[in-house]
């Protein structure tokens, strides 16, 4: 955007910069910020009953619950119901009107939602139906607000209640990987006196399971501590189908003891280990960037471009984690009937204790107003200790670095094949049975090498 604006300066006399977009998240949306700085024009239409001129708001679209076909718009002036068939005449009689004064004279902004769709396109009943369908899912509601209403989604960064998470814990063999977990990543948080490591398994749709929680006492000044960490790189965790998995990607926070982390990562190799650095703020093109080549000091010697470093937009992954944690789940009956968990579901084991759960929910996203009057989102700590959340964010970044956000269907299917996991859509046809049967008759121990992840 800045580049486009700079280029238009060449034609200073008649320059025009045109920005158009669907907004995303409140406080982060660029187009919303630009719109708020404009004269905020909205299309005003007259009520067919009382003539009151108004712009259309979703709140005034009403229908009987569960019956979107009864949707009608209610006039702001007389509250009478306006049927869809009035729309054509209303649109024809409408006009754009500014609803604010722009910060820079000459900046005009236009907002139009799907409520204005011409008859025969996206009608009010279809909008009502879409809203009913989205209920219960943050993800779907957010898409509805963004694409149908053209409004930002207010990210509820409220920390999930740790007790509620405790109630939802699931029992599976400690230290093992449930069937749908297809690869492992680890996130390590380096503290003064210890290193904490959480191992997460990831499946399709980034469904995840906490597999292990390891606290290495001693801290970065202690060589034994680093040796224990090195041992973790070759350690394996048993998968429910009999294979053994190593950690595909190991992300370690380099913020606290940068040179020790670089030195260790260089020693064990960057194929498996990714030193990461957390960055604030949401407005980033990608949640993870890198690697960048950074100088490292090893044994008192400075090595130019001796280490690799990935930058992680921690805010983005924290918001995602909390969104995933808040998601509705199928009931036990629905699960028995074959229902699957929604993408992103976070599975916590019965051994996850109160302290760990409190750490995972230790932060809150709050909206703060900046000096220029724009709102900004910021994560604030509710509790001093938040290692579980940090480790989760780094492990999530490791999954991103492994490429899981961009894998094709074939790649996931390949992972399932390697582990002998029956594919959800093939269980009925029997096609998925072959590798599974093989796994049973020949329970030979095979370790999935991390190099597979590239
Ligand atoms: Zn009216």
From TrEMBL:
Residue ranges of every copy of the Phage terminase large subunit GpA ATPase domain listed in the record: 2-96
GO molecular function: ATP hydrolysis activity; endonuclease activity
Pfam families, per the entry: GpA_ATPase, GpA_nuclease
Disordered as annotated region, ranges: 424-454
Start and end residues of each Terminase large subunit GpA endonuclease domain: 107-405
Protein name as catalogued: Phage terminase large subunit (GpA)
Protein source organism: Roseisalinus antarcticus
């Amino acid at each position: 955007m800045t580049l486009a604006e700079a280029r238009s300066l060449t034609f200073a006399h008649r320059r025009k910069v045109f920005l158009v977009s669907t907004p995303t998240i409140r406080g982060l949306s660029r187009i919303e910020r630009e719109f708020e700085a404009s004269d905020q024009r909205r299309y005003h239409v007259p009520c067919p009953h009382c003539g009151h001129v108004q712009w259309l708001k979703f709140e005034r679209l009403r229908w009987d619950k569960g019956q979107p076909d009864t949707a009608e718009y209610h006039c702001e002036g007389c509250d009478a119901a306006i049927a869809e068939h009035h729309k054509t005449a209303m649109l024809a009689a409408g006009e754009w009107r500014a609803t604010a004064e722009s910060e820079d004279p000459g900046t005009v902004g236009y907002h139009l939602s799907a409520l204005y769709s011409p008859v025969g396109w996206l009608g009010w009943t279809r909008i009502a139906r879409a809203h009913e369908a989205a209920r219960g899912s943050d993800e779907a509601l957010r898409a509805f607000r963004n694409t149908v209403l053209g409004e930002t989604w207010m990210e509820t960064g409220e920390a999930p209640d740790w007790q509620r998470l405790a109630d939802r814990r699931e029992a599976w063999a400690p230290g093992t990987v449930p069937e749908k977990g297809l690869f492992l990543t680890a996130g390590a948080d380096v503290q003064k006196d210890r290193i904490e490591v959480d191992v997460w398994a990831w499946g399709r749709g980034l469904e995840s399971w906490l597999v292990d929680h390891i606290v290495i006492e001693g801290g970065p000044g202690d060589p034994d501590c680093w040796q224990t960490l090195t041992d973790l790189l070759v350690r394996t965790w048993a998968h429910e189908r009999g294979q053994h998995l190593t950690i595909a990607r190991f992300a370690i926070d380099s913020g606290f003891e940068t040179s020790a982390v670089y030195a260790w990562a260089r020693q064990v190799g960057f194929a498996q280990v990714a030193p990461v650095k957390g960055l604030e703020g949401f407005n980033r093109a990608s949640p993870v960037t890198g690697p960048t080549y950074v100088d490292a000091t090893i044994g008192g010697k400075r090595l130019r471009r001796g280490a690799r470093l990935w930058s992680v937009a921690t805010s983005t992954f924290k918001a995602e984690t909390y969104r995933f944690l808040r998601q509705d789940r199928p009931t036990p009956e629905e699960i028995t009937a074959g229902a699957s968990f929604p993408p992103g579901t976070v599975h916590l084991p019965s051994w996850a204790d109160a302290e760990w759960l409190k750490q995972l929910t230790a932060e809150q996203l709050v909206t703060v107003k900046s000096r220029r009057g724009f709102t900004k989102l910021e994560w604030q700590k509710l509790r001093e200790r938040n290692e579980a959340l940090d480790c989760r964010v780094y492990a999530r970044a490791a999954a991103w670095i492994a490429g899981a956000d961009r894998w094709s269907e074939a790649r996931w299917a390949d992972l399932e094949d390697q582990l002998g996991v029956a594919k959800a859509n093939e269980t009925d046809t029997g096609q998925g049975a072959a590798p599974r049967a093989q796994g049973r008759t020949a329970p030979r121990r095979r370790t999935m090498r991390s190099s597979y992840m590239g």
